[in-house]
Amino acid sequence: MQEKGTISIHTENIFPIIKKFLYSDNEIFLRELVANAVDATQKIKRLSSLGEYKGDLGELKVSVSFDEKKKTITISDNGLGMTGEEIKKYINQIAFSGATEFVEKFKDAKDANEIIGKFGLGFYSAFMVADQVEIQSLSYKEGSEPARWICDGSTEFEISAGNRTERGTDIILHVNKESKEFLDKGKLQGILDKYCKFLPVPVQFGNKSTSEPDGEDADGKPKYKSVEVPNIINNTSPIWTKSPTELKDEDYLSFYQELYPFSEAPLFWIHLNVDYPFNLTGVLYFPKLKNDFEMQRNKIKLFSRQVFITDEVKDVVPEFLMLLHGIIDSPDIPLNVSRSFLQADSSVKKINTYITKKVADKLASLFKADRKAYEEKWSDIGLFVKYGMISEEKFYDKGKDFVLMGNTAKEYFTVDEYKEKVKANQTDKDGNLVLLYATDAAKQDSFIQSANKKGYDVLLMDSPIDTHFISQMEQKLEKVNLKRVDAASADKIISKDENIVAVLNDEEKEKVKGIFEKAIVKPGMKVEVDSLNPDELPVIVTMDEF
Ligand code: ADP
């Protein structure tokens, strides 16, 4: 049997367009072909469980190999295989028309580069790196003959008798000149690690040597010998595919190390698992946050059925959750669409809301379960919670119950607790609460001391995010004023009825003021000699808030 034919597709010349388009992202060919091979093994497994395939399944597996001399890369599987007719149907029609659609849709797209990596172009992506693609396949169906198909990416193909003797498929890429970088062990291993590390079927890439016990030497000491074993590149059951009840803390921690080797342990994590109205699994970790957010953003990896898609998740998770690490696996996130569409997509919106809620619930439960532990972690969690409250309305509403405010004595309060604490002593003439805060405990120490002596509490708001957090609190909290402890007006507005002992008369005060003004005052500074209580700092130099 030998047959030449022409694949009928609507756009004649998709090949050059695909090549041009995908050049920067051409490594995804391997992801696409390995994913197809895995699908083929899953399909035969299912046919077997349905009783439609009665033969021996064997050990289902995919293997990737390359031959530098022949300039080929081969992806093999022992999945369900294809007959010649099926190749014509699935490859000539589905794969080629998929590629045509892709080209039609995106040839004018401005953000083509972003779409490409995410878009499952499928089988046709093989032509990004190969002059010729060959298929050798034997279907599981009884009485099938092995088939061979070969094509150079144009619409001409050739199909003939193949040479496979066992069920399954080999995809053989005859690598083109521009892509010879892929005929390299390190390069291929790197791509497999990136995209295929958590696929559900073992993926073998060559062999590796390990040592094995080999009896004892003359002194009775154990001997070892070096043996070659298959180099399986993936972990077939990563933790997000398991039920939380099967998992221990160590499992989550070691998975974190697998994702981010040599990282500091995370503070805690959330196991996501939802079937309806969208399908999503995953594990999100709270890292130990550093003030420098940028370094820690964009660490969430997006998967679709255990195939790595991208670590650009900014359209899928809310902005503030970009600080989390971990993985999200969802076949329901549309990857073949442009950014603006994605933001408006209803599943993406639901996913957003779901993740925000899960994160808020987790924080609320940690706060409730062990307040002390929560406070201990507050310096890390706090940045995140405040950032979330500032940037996401939905999160503000939940966060206000577990956001903590620390004072200069290192005590922590919820917003309500703090209001309660200061309400007796820190109100202005209109009955509004006056909250004092310091932005730099060392520099503002004299002001803090002075306020404390008057019985006022001072919050410590010294992280970069606090400036924004303070203005948000001012907007959101009713009848509350926040004042920097060293602001000229700070303690003036608190109404008080203290017994002030005058030790200086007005004239004397003016004199002292004059001396200070001459000696140290710069524009914007103000000298006050109005603290007349001998226990307190008699002279205060203030600088206005900006
Ligand atoms: P998709 O996988 O999105 O359907 P592809 O272009 O990747 O599109 O593949 C087209 C079709 O070719 C698949 O749906 C499948 O039926 C068939 N196919 C591809 N690779 C294999 C394989 N390794 N074994 C069996 N069938 C395959």
Structural class: alpha+beta
Number of helices: 15
Q: What is the average per-residue confidence, as pLDDT, rounded to a whole number?
A: 85
**What is the molecular shape?**
elongated
Strand content of the residues, in percent? 15-25%
Low-confidence segments, ≥5 residues, pLDDT <50?
A: 498-502
The beta-strand count equals 21
Name the quaternary structure. single chain
Helix content: 25-40%
User: What is the makeup of the main sheet?
Assistant: 9 strands, mixed
Q: Which hetero ligands occur in this complex?
A: adenosine-5'-diphosphate
Strand order of the largest sheet: 1-6-5-4-7-3-2-8-9
- Cα-atom Rg, whole angstroms? 33 Å
Through-space gap between termini: 85 Å
Protein name: Chaperone protein HtpG
Organism: Daejeonella lutea
Binding site for ATP: 32, 36, 77, 82, 97-98, 169, 339
GO molecular function: ATP binding; ATP hydrolysis activity; ATP-dependent protein folding chaperone; unfolded protein binding
Note down, in words, how this protein is organized.
The chain has a nine-stranded mixed sheet with strand order 1-6-5-4-7-3-2-8-9. The protein has a five-stranded mixed sheet with strand order 10-11-14-12-13, with helices on both faces. A three-stranded parallel sheet has the order 18-17-19. The chain contains 15 helices and 21 strands. The termini are far apart. Mean pLDDT is 85; it is low at 498-502. With 546 residues, it is α+β, with helices and mostly antiparallel strands. Bound molecules: adenosine-5'-diphosphate. Adenosine-5'-diphosphate binds next to α2 and α3. InterPro entries: HATPase_C_sf, HSP90_C, Hsp90_fam, Hsp90_N, Ribosomal_Su5_D2-typ_SF. One of its GO terms (molecular function) is ATP-dependent protein folding chaperone.
